[in-house]
Amino acid sequence: MNSPVSPAEVVQSQPQEVLEAFGVDAAQGLNSRQVDRQREKYGWNRLEEAKQRGAGAIFVDQFKSPIIGLLAVAAVLAFAFQEWIEGIAVVIAIALNAVIGFTTELRAVKSMESLQQLSQTQAKVRREGQVQQVGADELVPGDIVVLEGGDMVPADLRLITASNLQADESALTGESLPASKTTQPVEPDLPLAEQTNRVFKGTAIRLGSAEGIVTATGMETELGHISTLASQAGSEQTPLEQRLDQLGRRLIWITLVVAAIVAISGIVQGKDLMLMVETAIALSVAAVPEGLPIVATVALARGMWRMAKQNALINRLSAVETLGSTSIICTDKTGTLTQNRMTASQIVVEAGSVQVGNSGDTPFSLDDQPIDPQQHEALEQLLRVAVLCNNAEPPNAEDPDRTIGDPMEIALLNLGQQANLGRDELRSQWPEEREVAFDPDLKMMATIHNTKDGYWVAVKGAPEAVLERCTDHWTAQGAQVLDGESRDRWQQRMHATAEAGLRVLAFATKTVDAAEADPYGDLTLLGVVGLEDPPRPDIKDSIKACHQAGIRVVMVTGDQQITARNIGLAVGLVGDREAQALPGKALIPLDDLTDQRRQELQQVSIFARVSPEQKLNLIALHQADGAIVAMTGDGVNDAPALQKADIGVAMGQRGTQVAQEAADMVLQDDSFASIVAAVAQGRAIFRNIRQFTLYLLSGNTGEIIAVALASFVNAPLPLLPLQILYINAVNDVFPALALGLGEGDETMMQRPPRKGSEAVLTQDHWIAIGLYGLLIAATTLGTFAIALLVWQLDGTEAVTISFMTLAFSRLWHIFNMRSRGTNPLRNEVTRNPFVWGALVICTLILLAAVYVPGLSDALGTTGLSGRSWGLVFGASLIPLIVGQLGKVLFERKAKR
Predict the structure, then answer these.
(1) Res. 172: pLDDT tops 80
(2) Which residue from 24, 149, 239, 733 puts its CA 20 to 30 A from 606's CA?
(3) For residue 778, is it within any domain?
(4) For the domain that residue 687 is a member of, what is the CATH number?
(5) Percentage of the chain with pLDDT > 70?
(6) What's the average model confidence in pLDDT over 230-258?
(7) Distance separating alpha carbons of residues 69 and 94, to the nearest angstrom
(8) How do residues 329-374 score in pLDDT, each as one tens digit?
(9) Regarding beta strands 454-461 and 503-512, do their DSSP bridges make them parallel or antiparallel, or are they unpaired?
């Protein structure tokens, strides 16, 4: 433990008792010997830094795929048998994949580093009776730290003095409002948000001043504890990586079996040993599509670049696709669903409830009728109190977006501005004589203002506290006695405002003869104001889009249940005011839950007062059910969950460095709408990957079947080893790459997400690969038989015909990759300009194989007659025509 006093003793002891336990005098602080002794015992006040992937690690990662490993084996075999061209072709494929993946991911890492501009935090500490400034990492337990508004808290502190102190702990606790702090003992085992006599490393002082004693440093702080959770959570392999690895392992066995069968059958039938070994090697390479890793990497990189243009920075290529398979998004509330700023939306006075709009010449309305607040006495007085009894600084002309102070007080200043009640003008009419600072025990503050007739007192505070001190309330007839019936009515109004999920402040006033008079007695109640952290403007449509796409959105917040539930209603997360908003304590470890309780918790859409450990439990709960979970967040407290989730999405503007380091994706505009765009992009990418994988394997299967059947029946081989590699080099790259760059179809976001266990290729796809392969092989062998047996052509021309037939049938086969239900002539494939460009390029390259001297000699091809070309092009269209007819028949049958 990094302290001689336990956390429970720290919070429930008086400040002097904590000082005595540490053996330090608050007025003197530690001396240099004590500091050295404490540092030797407890170490430096530093967190263990997350290791960033270096260029070397990123480069090595490009070779960890089973498919790349299989290609490497094929290259070694080719070189071992001195088949230099084949070996070089495979090495080029591996190198292209590595270069593209390395360049793209390194660019992502550099972009992340540019977001994380680190600076050394300084701290003011009292040592040997003098206040001095030192690096925060030099603090030790027992140091006396001096804090003022605007300071970052450099370590975990127990407060020993505090004056009007408020701390912004949203990054740690998820609580959207600053926490008021006191020095008084509190009960042990309270949530961090309720430990009012402590401040924590990594949070910020919003208002006031204080002194505190360091009780924990480094990894023993609450921030360090969360950092440990993040490291323990580990990074999950993305679904795409899992699926491609599964596919790679399956292809390894297919390759070994096919190569062995073809080689053995040819040797048994007395064919040339070297030819059969070369053919086996060529088929090994053919069975594994060289273009798959290249095209997958390029498709992901293109998706990554598209997302960057939409303010989403991707840390890992495969994370782009993962969002496409996401079935649940666990999202923080503050700054993600809401704007992380307070706004006054309702004012309750005796005459009724006044609604406050955000724009227009008359933003105030009562009973749906616009009103001028300066013509409504109770409302005008309330607004005057709201502006004058206020410590926030209004924005200045030079920097209108810069505000200083409590968000609620800033909201009250803005409210006054909407009524044309500026603080400077009001203070010139009612100069402030005295301020009575906010008292956490009384839950009120007051300002006393000089008037011609005496002193005017402005009071604001917690509704129950203010109401208790009021003897009158303001009505249309002026100040009237607050009798029991009126008091009950006001209590009901305050409760109803709170039930609506609003933060409630009450306002009161009175006049006194002296500035030193008690401000809190015999007050006249003016009314209450309801404030809210408004939803982001685009959030409702974004959540609706998620629901249409079959994605559940779960709010996970540190706020109160009632606040969370009402935000959930406002943004469309839930549609029923009776919807459950469970406390985080319901999220106990998975092993401690019954099956029935698991199912119940999996249906809950709102969790409040959630700790970092409980966030991990929630993600584990849904992952255990097979869900692909995305987690959004911006605070330090979100880091473990961002790391544990299938994909972590951090906020770039409001997000902390810790959250951004833990995430797979950073939203630079903090917009939830960017997540929806990423989901659509991810779905398109997976669809593209599935399309070109199906295209590649069905074409390669046609090659294998053609050569294998010829070998089994002891017929001449319709393809030579180098021709197989040439076709793969052409057809496995350009058409597949064109499919990988497609935009996707328009109905992607109207379909539910894929199951987490669904492979890149399902059983139906493997059947399709087999059928397409048989069709391409039959066409190839058919033209070979016609050329050799019917037309009695020599072996070179017959092989050239079968070679060209196979190549062009694979080329036209790209149009069989359209989605089911789409028009055969107008679909995502025919609308893809890259497809048409690939067809032109491949046609030219294939013609070069026949007519370019040197190349045709190496490939063993010869020029063809018009009749032969007619056979090639006529036969090569058969797989396309049959494939399209099959799709149409299948679709008609499915509609019945």
Answers:
(1) no
(2) 239
(3) yes
(4) 1.20.1110.10
(5) 81
(6) 60
(7) 9
(8) 998 887 778 887 888 999 999 999 999 986 556 789 988 888 989 8
(9) antiparallel
The neighbouring-strand residues paired with 209 are 148, 163
Are 657 and 683 in a shared domain? no
- In this structure, is residue 43 part of a structural domain? no
The per-residue pLDDT for range 835-869, each reduced to its tens digit, is: 999 999 999 999 999 999 888 888 889 989 999 99
Cα distance between residue 405 and residue 392, in whole Å: 4
Please give the Cα distance from 635 to 335 (Å, whole number): 10
Q: Say if residues 309 and 511 touch (Cβ distance below 8 Å).
A: no
Domain-embedded: residue 160: no
Q: What is the pLDDT of residues 9-52, one digit of tens each?
A: 888 889 999 999 899 999 999 999 999 999 999 899 887 655 55
Handedness of CA 584, 589, 593, 595 (dihedral sign): positive
Q: Which residue has the tokens 């007395």?
A: 270
Residues 6+ apart with CB under 8 A from 328: 551, 552, 553, 554, 622, 627, 628, 629, 630
Kindly list the distances between the CA atom of residue 470 and the CA atoms of 436, 692, 740, 896, in Å, as whole numbers in the listed order: 18, 75, 71, 74
Structure tokens at 204: 């910020």
How far from 398 is each of 119, 390, 402, 414, 574, CA to CA, in Å?
A: 27, 22, 9, 17, 42
**Amino acid 119: pLDDT:** 35
Which of 511, 532, 553 is the last residue in one of the domains? 532
Instruction: Give the pair of three-digit tokens for residue 873.
Output: 């092009």
Q: Which of 194, 399, 891, 322 is nearest to 623 (CA)?
A: 322
Angle, nearest 10°, between helix axes 66-80 and 239-268? 30
Q: Are 760 and 693 in contact (CB under 8 A)?
A: yes
Confidence tier at 111 by pLDDT (50, 70, 90) = very low
List the helix and strand counts (H, then E) for the chain: 32, 26
Please say if the pLDDT value at position 387 is more than 90. Answer: yes
Hey, which residues are catalytic here?
Answer: 332
Domain that holds residue 514: 343-532
Q: CA geometry: angle at 334 spanning 328 and 340, to 5°?
A: 145
Q: Does 630 share its domain with 694? A: no
The token duo for 343 is: 């706004």
Mean pLDDT of 557-578: 82
Please write down the HEC assignment for all residues of 539-553. HHHHHHHHHHCCCEE
Among 677, 705, 724, residue at a domain's last position: 677
